[in-house]
Fold this sequence. Notes:
alpha/beta, 21 helices
Amino acid sequence: MWSVKIGNARRARPALVIRAGAFYPSGVTSRREKGWLAVAGILALAVVLRLWALDVKPAHFDEGVNGWFADEMAHTGYYRYDPTNYHGPLHMYAVFVSQSLLGRDLWALRLPAVLASVLCVAMVLSFRKFFGAWPANVAGLLMAVSPAYVFYGRYSIHESWLVLGLLAVLYGILGLWEFGRRRDLWWLGGGAALCVLTKETYAIHFACFALAGATLWLLGRVIPSRPALSPAAQEWDRRDLAKVSAAAVVVIVIFYSGFLLDFSALPGLWTTFLAWFQTGVEAGGHEKTSFDLVGPLNYYWLALMGRYEWGALAGVVAGLLYIRPSDAKVRYTAICGAGALVAYSLVPYKTPWCVISLLWPFYFVVGSALFHLTPWPRRIVLVVLAGHGLWASVDLNYRKFDDENEPYVYVQTFREVADGINPPLELARRDPRFRHQPGAIVMGSYYPLPWIFGDFTSVGYYTGESVPAQLDSAFVLADESLADKVQSALVDDYYRRPFRLRSGADKCVAFFRVREFSPLFDGAPPDVLGNRDAARPPAETALPAP
């Protein structure tokens, strides 16, 4: 220790520690190091949970569709935006780049979504400048271990990109509010562009951001914020706004026009809302009426939180505390979260992965609320919330990832699909020439199989009405209800094996031609004797549109 004498008193000073030629008080250095260690630990946990055994879960229906779009881009040169798909083009290009660099497998298919999910955690941690280190670290930890963010962060779907864009928008709003810097304007514009490039539901969230500002102002007239946050003097001007707006528009036009190859797709930017509104109202088989509360209001999202997301549910409850005089930034965030939760609860169309667009504001709220507790109680509550999230996340992602009893497992491909797809994939691995052997898929709904067999050049896709009179394919995968019809059309001898494709679909049957697959089945006798006198038809090679 060192000290300095002032009059008759001696004031203790912390020891000095040399760091890169500069002097820092050891207590400050220790706090900084602990702060960065906490951030690094949270990010490392997020990465491990999202990357560990990334390919243990078979490709989901929607992953197969997105992968198929990326495969088509290899032939067309760009992604043609379809406004009835309700998703922007960004994720398709990300998957295309990943598969082009890393090959066609589950890791390459899912890595873009993993990257976006990890960046979301990093983005949450960066809000320490607005909410403080403790609330931001709590929010980052809860997101890092969240069953929803991990489960859908390991899916090749669009949702994580939307969350990343929404976080950037909030970062820009709070930055302009508190600092007024040009960089904050760029955060706002960049986040908004990212949302537009991702998913049409950005319209709901943009409305929530705007209405939350008006609500905060009205609430402040009755119950003022304490401390209040007066808007900072703005460093940007109209020219800066024009630059940001122009950059956002240019990026959006480039992606939606297929990198300037198809300007006819641009009207889809606004015509998509006609189809999107109709689907949202009619639900298209994705309604959750068993959770109806009052009129059109539905508690489906709260039920998911109660089962999986205790941290976010605690944030919903803690948000009520911010009706009283409280920090304006937290108030605004709580209002944004509550507005989105109500809006999504009113829309009949509900798929569980949308929950990740709703959870994140409540992480900031619960982190800020816990900060006002004394150290030990807040640590105990955090351990309970984060511990439950981690346990549920590990259980869901590595054990029950295809369990139909888990609400997050939705139209998921079963692990038993391996009984139907692994034999052809194994033969192709042993001898790449097998990829040119004819195959047939006879199913009413067959995704993600077109992506799984995307490297096979002669696979035909048939419905029950279009099954050829004779089939001479090396392998045939069929709905169980069509198995007898397929079996009667087989020209050669085959092995017959049952398998399951996914939740909500028929049971399936696989037929493997003996002369190719005999080594995989240890030379076992055939299960089906074919009609060798029948003419052998050419294979159908056209891939279906999703």
